[in-house]
Structure formats: structure tokens, C-alpha cells
Task: inverse folding
């Protein structure tokens, strides 16, 4: 059936990427594979993760965690990735229940806790999730590459004026991640998003 994305090049690119990832997840041949999705702000990580959840090829439920719910504030990229590794990815790999706390951006403090079931598949998406310390914990590892102008426009439309004053501050943390971790080299799949 024709996709609604046919007139939207971003949606078309993400739809094609999800098609590849559905096959990759199936090829893992495990009941609880882990998918890591990285890319700079506005690259399409959340949209890709939501679409992958909707088209998940394995029976049962898939868990999805966005690092935007974990980063402890506008200077917390590295800390958020560390928390995701220690509280979600490592326990999942060991067959243990993981527990992470949502960061409440409005009050600037941790909020309620969420459990991650090691028996279920898992998608973790967010800037910084592909590092040498996390790559071995992901069966399918994705890097989304997208031009700065497009990313910025999408991110500011999505998050509005609350993000605008922090764009450069966050971008500097992304740059450090790219220089230090080379996430595209750690990915099993690299997709271009217009």
C-alpha cells in the first residue's frame, strides 16, 4: 500500500530506514533484541523509534526509552547516556530488571521510576547513545545523518521556544560526542535523513 510519506522526503527516508531495521531485528534471531538509535538533535530519532515500534516484527511488546526523558538538564548529555547504560542497557544484557527515573524538565529534578523488562525487546533512542561503552550492548545500532538546517528547523518546530536558547549549548555536547565516540563508525546501519 502507498505510504502517506510519499510526499514528505523525511518521512519517506525514515520509512525506508524502518524497513531495513525490521529485517535487521528479525535477523538477530532473539526474542529480546536491543536497538540503539543515535543522531543529532532533530535528525529523526524519535520518529524512527515510534515507527519501528508500530512495525515491530516480533510477537509481543517492545519497550522504547527516549533519552530525552533521562538527560538531567541541558548540560546532561553525557550523564544521561551513562545513566541509560548503567540503569537500562547493562541490566537488560544481564537478564536483570532495569529501573530508570524520568527527568522532569519543568522542575529540574528526577521524577517517577520506570522498569525495563529484560525478557522484552528494547529500543533506546537519543543523542549520545552510541559510544564504545554502549555499542556492545546493542544488537542493531543506528546512526541518523541529517543536515544542520533541517535538523534545527524540525527540533525548533517540535520543541519551540523552550529549546531555542539552548540549541548551541546542546550542539556543543553533540560535537564532543561525535569527536570522542565516532558514533557513525559504531553503527550497524547509517541512514541519511534530508
Result:
Amino acid at each position: 500500500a502507498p505510504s502517506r510519506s510519499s510526499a514528505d522526503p523525511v518521512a519517506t527516508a525514515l520509512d525506508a530506514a524502518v524497513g531495513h531495521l525490521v529485517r535487521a531485528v528479525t535477523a538477530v534471531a532473539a526474542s529480546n533484541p536491543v536497538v540503539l538509535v543515535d543522531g543529532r538533535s532533530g535528525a529523526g530519532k524519535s520518529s524512527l523509534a515510534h515507527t519501528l515500534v508500530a512495525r515491530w516484527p516480533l510477537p509481543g511488546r517492545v519497550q522504547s526509552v527516549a533519552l530525552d526523558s533521562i538527560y538531567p538538564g541541558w548540560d546532561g548529555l553525557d550523564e544521561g547516556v551513562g545513566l541509560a547504560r548503567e540503569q537500562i542497557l547493562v541490566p537488560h544484557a544481564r537478564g536483570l530488571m532495569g529501573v530508570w527515573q524520568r527527568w522532569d524538565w519543568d522542575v529540574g529534578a528526577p521524577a517517577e521510576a520506570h522498569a525495563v523488562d529484560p525478557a522484552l525487546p528494547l529500543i533506546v533512542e537519543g543523542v549520545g547513545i552510541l559510544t564504545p561503552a554502549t555499542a556492545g550492548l546493542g544488537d542493531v545500532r543506528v546512526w541518523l545523518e541529517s543536515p544542520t538546517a533541517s535538523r534545527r528547523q524540525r527540533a525548533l518546530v517540535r520543541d519551540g521556544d523552550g529549546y531555542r536558547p539552548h540549541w548551541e549549548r546542546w550542539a556543543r555536547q553533540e560535537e564532543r560526542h561525535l569527536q570522542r565516540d565516532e558514533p557513525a563508525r559504531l553503527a550497524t546501519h547509517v541512514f541519511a535523513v534530508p
